[in-house]
Amino acid sequence: MNDYELETMLRINSIMVIRKLGSGSFGDIYEAKHMGSGLHVALKVERKNAGQSHLSIESTVYNLLRHGMGIPMTYQFFSNRRHDVLVMELLGPSLETLFTMCNRRFSMKTVLMLADQMVDRLEYLHLHHYVHRDIKPENFLMGVGLTRHRLHLIDFGLSKRYWDMKENRHVPQRRGTKWAGTARYASVNALCCKVQSRRDDLESVGYVLIYLLRGSLPWQGLLPNSKLQKAEMILEMKLSTLPNSLCAGYPNEFYNYIIYTRQLGFEEEPDYRMIRCTFLSLLFNLKFTNDLIYDWDHAEKNSGKSGSEEDRVVVKKVV
Amino acid sequence: MENKEKKQKPLKRHAQVPLIIPKNSVISTYAVGRLCSEPALVRIEVKDLIGSGSFGRVYQAHVNESEEIVAVKQTLYNPKLSQGEAEIMGQLKDHNNIVRLIMHSSVSLGFPSVDYVLLVMEYMPMTLLDYINYHLTVLQPAERLINVRILSYQMFRGLGYLHLLGISHRDVKPENLLIDNQKMVLKLSDFGSAKLLVPQEPSISYICSRLYRAPELFAGYELYSCAVDIWSAGCVLAELLKGYPLFSSHKHDRKQLRLIVNMLGTDGLERAPEILSKCGNSLHPRTTRPSWNYLLNTAVPQDLCGLLNSCFIYEAAARISPMMACSHGSYDELRIMDAMALPMPNGNPLPPLFDFNSLEMGTDPKLWVNLLPIHLSSMEDKYSVVEAFEAV
């Protein structure tokens, strides 16, 4: 970070940047430390431009959800002439990172335990009248320390309220709205440029689950000439891919889930409890226990063993 | 009644201190069975003393030279009590989650003789307090969570049966919840404070242990309902998750009430004016409830958070009812395990959780959709493929 003005603002707030963690479509993520308390935090920095500030929207949503399980804590939001900064709880790796670490394949047990938590997080978000609109593995993070086994939902920069607070009813359906998000996991209705509602978040969860099980999705690998054409090609591929072939080789519950989310009405409230019970029943049916021990926990054990082997080799060399 | 004492050692009686029955004493007395049958002569062989408190003492014992271990509770006979413990327990039919009263009797012991009431009950090896202190902490988090659900479900179910009879326990706390930690069975015990609550009839408000007392009792409100037990049950559930009591203790009722309100926030307090008037004007301004992860300093699943919030409502009428609590989503995992005959983490089968009796089955039919472990409706049955494709 070489922006003097931004560094000054952070120093005034007793925050020291440690390293850069990654970049999003709207800003950068840094690991930082609060000098007063020694707490390690995550910084989300967004450069101001002519467009709407996504980070202020995100900060509002985080404040609304602040007591939820699986929602990171936000500590501060401040801005200067050119930047917005959100100081929040530092979390662990994302599902995409863990997916790559596990050779781009998750076991059925891991996917079902994650599915239960994904639906739980979305139910909590929808309970507060917001839809996420950018469900993807990169936006699901595991915790650190005591919350290491807990799935967190992040990145509410594209979130939108689906409930009209003044008229106390669902927002109406419109067509022709600008579409934003990740085309790979977006719902069919989203790619058709319709207003997104609760059903679209849940349909995205379905695609994420299939992706984690199969390792890829049929509409990956297309070669578009532009971003707009990419979305059109993905939409065409999604419409032509039957749910049967999408979920072939996996339990019926996933096929039923895709069908259920696609047939949900625009204003219809999903039956979260039924969905979670279905995945939980499947988990128990396959003789797994809901012990929150995932594939990457086993991978860590194996790497631990190989590490100890290396240590032995070193000891031999020294001797 | 004829009283005989064998091997009874004469002990010097201290004023107001109940007599300790020596080990291996044998008491012959006429005891009344559970169904209020004619008194019958029984021999009670008293063994170890296993508990004592302000209520009296509890011993292990054998009855009629049987090998079965029973628990015998000895309390001073008090004719002023309008509804004795034996009378309350006698009304309770066999229920999985309520300690069974086998028989009771009045005896005169010691010299000079003092009248006592002996309650012969089934024996349970452990209290929930012992379980929380010595067993729960060594479990893995997932196993601990399953056990919390199994035990708290049975607590609510036992309270549900009581409340359907119009009886309020009025002293729900871990010491009064007996469990078998191998079978994971939990039973309500100690009905010394229980009462048949009649609407619009005042009851004493100085009741229930301090850490588990509902806020309307601290406020001195006397027209309370069975919902005071729900607040206590919420405290027990929080203690199961936290490992020690949720609230700390203050001597004064107003201070205790203020502590509770400051901890849980003032949301909903305006709908409970009898509590609000007692909080005084030194209350913090309107605050929302902190998250249960913060209050309990541990990871609490969202469904248990919802259940806790339903218990800790200041307006007593708005608190969740016990049968509604049993139908809560927090216990769906148990229904699935029961439907699939899955064992508990310790390898034993689930205790009977869903064999409701006729009184419990008379409750609201809407509850049954969520209450019974019937096989869950499949998404495939609800929505046909053709309709789904037409919708797309």
Automatic annotation (TrEMBL), chain A:
Q: Which CDD domains match?
A: STKc_CK1 (cd14016)
Report if keyword ATP-binding is assigned.
Answer: yes
Q: Give a GO cellular-component term.
A: cytoplasm
Indicate yes or no for the key word ATP-binding.
yes
Please report the stretch or stretches of sequence annotated as the Protein kinase domain.
Answer: 15-319
Instruction: Give an example GO biological process.
Output: positive regulation of proteasomal ubiquitin-dependent protein catabolic process
Residues the record lists as binding ATP = K44
The GO terms describing molecular function are: ATP binding; protein serine/threonine kinase activity
Q: What is its EC number?
A: 2.7.11.1
Its keywords, alphabetically, are: ATP-binding, Kinase, Nucleotide-binding, Serine/threonine-protein kinase, Transferase
Quote any Pfam family the record assigns. Answer: Pkinase
Similarity section: Belongs to the protein kinase superfamily.
Protein name, as recorded: non-specific serine/threonine protein kinase
Organism of provenance: Drosophila melanogaster (Fruit fly)
Q: Which gene encodes it?
A: Dmel\CG9962
From TrEMBL, chain B:
Q: Which UniProt keywords apply?
A: ATP-binding, Kinase, Nucleotide-binding, Serine/threonine-protein kinase, Transferase
Instruction: Specify the Protein kinase domain's residue ranges.
Output: 44-331
Gene Ontology annotations for the cellular component aspect, listed alphabetically: nucleus
Give the InterPro entries listed for this entry.
Answer: GSK-3, Kinase-like_dom_sf, Prot_kinase_dom, Protein_kinase_ATP_BS, Ser/Thr_kinase_AS, STKc_GSK3
Recorded hits in SMART domains, A to Z, give: S_TKc
CDD domains for this protein: STKc_GSK3
Q: Give the Pfam families listed for this entry.
A: Pkinase (PF00069)
Q: Which domain of life is it from?
A: Eukaryota
Q: Name one GO molecular function term.
A: RNA polymerase II CTD heptapeptide repeat kinase activity
Q: Name one GO biological process term.
A: G1/S transition of mitotic cell cycle
Q: What is its EC number?
A: 2.7.11.22, 2.7.11.23
Q: Where is the signal peptide?
A: none
Q: Where does ATP bind?
A: K73
Q: Which family does it belong to?
A: Belongs to the protein kinase superfamily. CMGC Ser/Thr protein kinase family. GSK-3 subfamily.
Indicate what this protein is called per its UniProt record: Protein kinase at 34A
From which source organism is this entry? Drosophila melanogaster (Fruit fly)
Taxonomic lineage from the root:
Eukaryota, Metazoa, Ecdysozoa, Arthropoda, Hexapoda
